[in-house]
Amino acid sequence: MDNVSKRLLQASYALALTAAVATSAQAQSTRKDLQTGNKLFNQENYRASIPYYERVIAKDPNNAQALFRAGVAYLSFDKEKASDYIYKAQKLKPKVSKDVEYWLGRVDHLNYNFDEAITHYQAYNATLKKKNDTRREEVAQLIQHSKNAKILFNAPKDIFVKNLGPTVNTQYSEHSPVISSDDKTLIFTTRANPTDIPGLDSKARNKTAADGEYYEGIVETHRIDADNWEKPRSLSAALNSKGHDASDQLFDNDTKLLMYRSDEDGDVFVASKQAGGDWGNPVKLNSNINSKQYEGDAYITPDGLTLYFSTSRYSEDGNLDLYYSTRTAGGDWGPAKSLGSTINTKYDEDSPYMSRDGKTLYFSSRGHNTMGDYDIFKSQYDSIGHKWGRPENMGYPINTPDADSYYRLAPDGTYAYLSSYRIGGYGEKDIYTISYIKNINIKGSVFSKRDSTQAIPGVELVFNGTQADKTAISFRDVTKPDGTYQVKVLSARTYQVAVNKDGKNIETQEFAVPISTNDSTSITKNFYVDYIDTTQINPIAKYKIYFDTDKYKLRPESIKVLNSISTVLKANTGLNISIEGNCDSRNTDEYNMVLGQNRADAAKNYLVKQGVASARLTTVSYGERKPAAPNDSPENMQLNRRDEFKVVLKEGEKMPMIQPATSTTTTTSSTSSSSTMAAPGAPLPGKSKVRLADGTKVKTKVDESSDKVKVKTKGAAGEKSKTISKDGELESKAKDASGEKAKVKTSN
């Protein structure tokens, strides 16, 4: 072997040795990170364990144990990543943990995969060999939670849940919102790093709790505007001890703060504002409230005489129940009493809150029909039976498969605050607001695409959408003579808007309506449609006929109008028209649609009898949807009980040249003295007005329920007459131009 070969061989030995040493060092480093991560994990210090597992995964992406435990640790911080890690670990090593099916069920449950969660829970239950294994009860409860969650998730409420944003919420836990009476100051509890919050950092608080996270501290922030808050700061050094401190309630005109402190496993305290505006040292409530067991959330009624609180004092298994205590004015709190088995279950109940009227109790529970962990419930007080009603789950999206609690109404009662672990948050528990989705006012005009300045009247707009639970909803309006419309629709959804004209659909457009949490929001939406409007040049638009209330019988004056229309149509054989029936608002919309159609048909049938081809006439009913005037007086309602007539053109067709109609006028003469005017046949019921060729005006009124006929005349020179005929009798009075009077009366 030559020297070159020897040197190359020696170099390769050295390289292999270096690689082996490096691999061994890397493996040792990975084992150390895994051991440290496991130690913190076993101490339930999940946040601190994650960086060590991530280092292991970066070096060894297929390390099933690191993936599995990191996934479990991520459950409180990133549910989607937790699912990815646990599923990957199970795929790499199916028996990565004897509890892997349990954790697969948990991540599917929290990620809204309820059927899959139930399957995993059942698979885990099958691995439990002992019939009396206490874990069976927990698994049965989780299966029921998943079933509850599936039902509630598929029947959501029209509610808008909004995160308060990164100024208030952090990667740590924020909870227990307490709002001032003017809704401008928010006091809450945080487990953020004390060094990030002015006034919260101190030597007494520089340590972490047993779970490796920072101790809870009470902070405050002030509202900038509807959506923004100032950077939080410590509420008071007197309120934040070296342990856990949490806010419960402001009361007595915001001068007192009910709070929790981790003394003796947790007790309820009250702090008062001092003369200088700072808070004094908290004072523990008496032994009827506090014990050596846990007491946490509490609420005092507005009259200051009843305290509701959660305690584990009376529970055999350490679970929380809700109790209340009363006192006389100026007295101390009396013995605690349970809210009873209707409210309390064998699981935890916490976070009581009462409506101002004392009739509705809001609280959080891990029992009842929760979607998982804590859900928010409400119960109505029966003042007759003196008991609380069955709790009602407030539904999705207020509640989620994870913990939801600390429901607190804003001072005006229009929305609420809560704290929740949910997908889309900033880390752990965040503070949110809950607002019921409200109507929004949509207004605008409908224009022709070919002439964007020409607004089209008589266009029906139908907004078709769904509620959160998929129930169909529909809102409609018809454009006014100036082409404008206005309609109130439920906000925060996309509508399919059907644009109809003359009973036919022109087109359907999609329109996304933004969120509104108050009923005063208004937006403008104009529609541009492929339609040529001919109403502006309609040669018969001047013709209208009117109807009596709830009737579609043609009046005498309507016959004359229809005769004129018939004459126009006979002179213009290429002209087709639409007859539109309209009503006032006295009856239901459904009834009026039928009545409007009957009115349109009555006019059509008469024109057909006059020799107009039926094919040239179309009818449509608008019911009460197209008023000519507000339905606020008898006169205006009369204007709405009508038929209108419009020329119908084919697509692209121009308005034809209208030929003038020829007609014969028959003139009836009268003398200045009393006279009787005969007419062929029986007169039709109703009123009519006629102007004769010599200028004489004739008014006729025929009663509908009798044969009474009243005729008044007035000549151009001032002569007048009045004739009444009834049951064969006639009475007539007359006055000529010179003032001479005459009177005639005949009997049957």
Question: Any overview of this molecule?
Answer:
The protein is of the alpha+beta class. The strands form 9 sheets. A 6-stranded antiparallel beta sheet has the order 35-36-37-38-39-40, with no helix packed on it. Strands 14, 15, 16, 17 and 18 form a 5-stranded antiparallel beta sheet that branches. Helix 3 (64-73) runs antiparallel to helix 4 and helix 5 (100-110) packs antiparallel against helix 6. The longest helix is centred in the N-terminal third of the chain and has 40 residues, at 3-42. It is 22% helix and 31% strand. The radius of gyration is 41 Å and the shape is elongated.
Helix/strand layout:
Blueprint: H1 3-42, H2 46-59, H3 64-73, H4 79-92, H5 100-110, H6 114-127, H7 135-153, E1 159-163, E2 174-179, E3 185-190, E4 217-222, E5 233-234, E6 245-251, E7 256-261, E8 267-272, E9 283-284, E10 295-300, E11 306-311, E12 321-326, E13 337-338, E14 349-354, E15 360-365, E16 375-382, E17 387-388, E18 392-393, E19 404-409, E20 415-420, E21 430-436, E22 439-448, E23 451-455, E24 459-466, E25 472-478, E26 484-490, E27 493-501, E28 504-513, E29 522-524, E30 527-529, E31 544-546, H8 556-571, E32 577-582, H9 589-609, E33 617-623, H10 634-640, E34 642-647, E35 686-691, E36 697-702, E37 709-714, E38 720-726, E39 729-735, E40 741-746
Parallel strand pairs: 22-29, 22-30, 32-33
Antiparallel strand pairs: 1-21, 2-3, 3-4, 4-5, 6-7, 7-8, 8-9, 10-11, 11-12, 12-13, 14-15, 15-16, 16-17, 16-18, 19-20, 20-21, 22-23, 22-26, 24-25, 24-27, 27-28, 31-34, 32-34, 35-36, 36-37, 37-38, 38-39, 39-40
